[in-house]
Amino acid sequence: MAGAWPLMPEWVAVPDAPVHRGDSLRVTWNPPHPGAGDGHELRLALVVHHKVRMSTSEGLAFEGGRFGIERQVWIVHDRAPVTAAAGAALLHVPPGVPYSYPGSILAFFWGVALADEARQLEEPIGWSAVKVLP
Fold this sequence. Notes:
By secondary structure, the chain is mostly beta strands. The protein has a single domain (2-133), classed as Immunoglobulin-like, CATH 2.60.40. The chain is built from no helices and 10 strands. The radius of gyration is 17 Å and the shape is globular. It starts with 11 loop residues before the first strand and ends with a strand. The model has no long low-confidence stretch (mean pLDDT 86).
């Protein structure tokens, strides 16, 4: 879950206030030294976390004696390049997407990831959770 991902570096500021579907989120940055932001981008991502029931022959047990595995699907809804100098970007939450929902079988987590442009989203340099309301 989001707690296991690296925290967003101090030089990137993601607002704490929740946003509604269809709204924009203003993210700012101020790299500590020249070049610190080069090759990076901000990605507004939805992480769908769900448990999948499996047969007992698969052998993967979780709570309550049931069998299953947990999966995550990452979906990038917006992205913005990070510049070497201080700057800001608006990331847009689409109107028809799932809102934040921390369910036990199916959960939707939103956040802003700082990532190397060449890396997969599942390996962020920094992560800051965002609460998306209906």
